[in-house]
Amino acid sequence: MAGQQSQSIQTLLEAEKEAAKIVQQARQYRVQRLKDARSEAAKEIEEYKKSKEAEFRAFEASHAGNIQAVQASVDKETEAKQQEIRAQYEANKDKVVKKLLDRVVLVKPELHRNLQKVEA
Question: Which residues form a coiled coil (predicted)?
Fold first, then answer.
């Protein structure tokens, strides 16, 4: 009976070792699958990112001509307005300087209207 018990115990120990081995393999398999899934997800994310960047570059390139055309027209308009302002400045600067000098140099001395009323 003791031999049979020791053989049963030995069988149980072997079964336990086998079960531990199977559990360890399952854990390793799960860890490997998680690593593979992460790697695959990272690849998919990178591919998606590259496709979106290419799409954005294509969109940007297709609209770059419009932006340059608008910028050129704005630059022309700005230059035209600046030339107009310079022309008005050149045409009127002498008149403005003359008016300022007339106001400063040609002073007509008069009594203040309140002072005139008091004396009268």
Answer: 12-54
* Both structure tokens of 12: 């149980």
Q: What is the pLDDT of residues 24-58, one digit of tens each?
A: 999 999 999 999 999 999 999 999 999 999 999 99
| Residue in the structure block whose two tokens are 């940007």 | 60
User: What's the chain's Rg over C-alpha atoms?
Assistant: 48
| CA-to-CA separations, 52 to 48, 49, 57, 58, 60, in angstroms, rounded | 6, 5, 9, 10, 12
Whole-structure pTM over 0.90, yes or no? no
As a whole number of angstroms, the distance between CA 31 and CA 37 comes to 10
Beta strands in 55-114 (DSSP E): none
